[in-house]
Amino acid sequence: MRSLRSRLALLWALSLAASLAVGAMLVSLYRASAMAQAARAEAVATRICDVIDDRWGFYAAGWAGPAPPEGDASFRHDLSALLAGAVPLSPALEAGIWREGEGMLARRGTALGPPDAAVLATVGEAVSEERQALRRQDSLLGPVGIAACPLAGPVANLVAYVAVTVPEAEGPRVLQAGLAVLLALMLAMAALITWLQRTWARHVRGIAAALAAPESGELPRLAPTGERELDRIVAALDLARTRLAEARQRSEELAARVALSERLAALGRVAAGVAHEIRNPIAAMRLKAENALAGDEARRRAALEAILAQIARLDRLIGELLAMTQRRTPAPEAVDLPGFLAACAADHPRVAAMAPAGTRAVLDPALTRRALDSLLANARQLSPAGATVRLHGEVSGRMTRITVADDGPGVPAALRATLFEPFVTGRADGTGLGLAIARELAEAQGGTLLLADPGGEGRGATFLLELPAPEPHTLEPSCPAS
Fold first, then answer.
1. Who contacts 403 (Cβ-Cβ below 8 Å, separation ≥6)?
2. Which residues contact 148 (CB under 8 A, 6 or more apart)?
3. Could you tell me if 127 and 164 lie in one domain?
4. Cα–Cα distance for residue pair 117/447, rounded to 1 Å
5. Domain end (from 151, 172, 193)
6. H-helix or E-strand spanning residue 93
7. Nearest to 367 by CA among 441, 439, 440
8. 295 and 433 together in one domain
9. Cβ(345)–Cβ(352) below 8 Å
């Protein structure tokens, strides 16, 4: 009962039940009225029959016999006169005197035809039972009450009958009209409820389709439905759409300002890091150059060697900066993961590579190897002397996961939030670009680089490199890495 359709159906069912109850009441009232009319006809017939009996008693008083013979015209004439005095002439009345063995002796009425079967049956009952007989029957003109009473006297088996017809009023026509009106009302209500249900359902489907159609995340402008209640909802949704658009615009403006602030802050950090990384070699070269100017040939040679080392350091720094800014297009291939990890570990001392035998991974070998080189170099520099760095790989579904774990001191809590930003390092001799470049290489392949376990308290750090496999149609065939 939570839908509009079910509620309208319930309303129609209740209306139908009420209409059926009213119709039943009308039929019951009509039947009661018909029965009352029939009883009235019987009462009138009985009263007139009694009047005939009284007139016959007066006519036969003092008559000791004998009975008139069959076909006596004078007797029939007297009986007709008796009926004329007892029965008023009316289209609704018919009276007669019947004698067993001879039939009808006299009749009175406006339109006399052959005696009705019901009249003959009532007369026969009165003769056989020797008492007054009553009968009711329906006719086209209305209910008919029939009374037959034996006439005592010198003539045996003489019976008088009276048939009274009570014309029906407007009862049947009124009943038919009332039932027709009820039926018309029910049909009109059913049509109205169906129209309302379909109209509302169509408007609701239109609103739902309009709200589900846009993929931009914005509410659409809804057209009025013409239904006052639904248009209130439409107006509220349009107001919400306007407010949402304004809020989104303010959010985008705020996000743009925040992004600009973050870019400026990042640019400031990068500029400060670059300045710091360049200033130290320049200061060292200046000091060595001053010593060379003031010293002998041996000191000048040592100073030039130190200057060349600082120039190499600057060149490496510039190369790493360029590596961060270069746009990389990955070229994923299907490689043998154990062989690929073993090849990466071979370039670094004391690195143990592990992966399930026969595992195939889909990745960009060049980009992934550069990222792993940065992670392994960082892990080696932080590990104690003689410690082994663990390189482990596995494939789960379409995701390749490679972990690099060391036995170093772990990542300090102060560096964890900004660990992958440029120039963030915990070593005095580090540039802080290795992890940033490694993450850039992972993200270029649609993956990511995470600090899975920061370590500390006797545990080393663990980094997790996750690389999703691209769709199969984008792969290029290749030989396994070795």
1. 390, 391, 392, 393, 452, 462, 463, 464, 465
2. 49, 119, 122, 123, 125, 126, 132, 133, 134, 159, 160, 161, 162
3. yes
4. 107
5. 172
6. strand 93-99
7. 441
8. no
9. yes
Residue 446 · residue 383 · CB < 8 Å: no
- Number of domains forming the structure of the chain: 3
The residues pairing with 453 across neighbouring beta strands, listed in sequence order, are 462
Nearest C-alpha neighbor of 95 from the set 81, 112, 108, 76: 108
d(CA 402, CA 362): 12
* Structural domain ending residue among the three candidates 139, 172, 205: 172
- At 200-254, the pLDDT tens digits run 788 787 777 777 776 556 777 778 877 777 788 888 888 887 888 888 888 888 8
Q: How far is CA 208 from the centre of its chain?
A: 10
For 455-475, what is each residue's pLDDT tens digit?
877 788 999 999 998 866 555
- Helix segments in 213-334, DSSP class H: 228-294, 297-325
Does 8 share its domain with 131? yes
pLDDT digit string, tens, across residues 145-178: 899 999 988 888 899 999 998 876 555 666 677 7
Spatial CB neighbours of 168, under 8 Å, sequence gap ≥ 6: 34, 37, 141, 142, 143
Could you tell me if residue 438 is inside a domain? yes
Is the Cβ–Cβ distance between 137 and 118 less than 8 Å? yes
Q: Are 311 and 281 in contact (CB under 8 A)?
A: yes
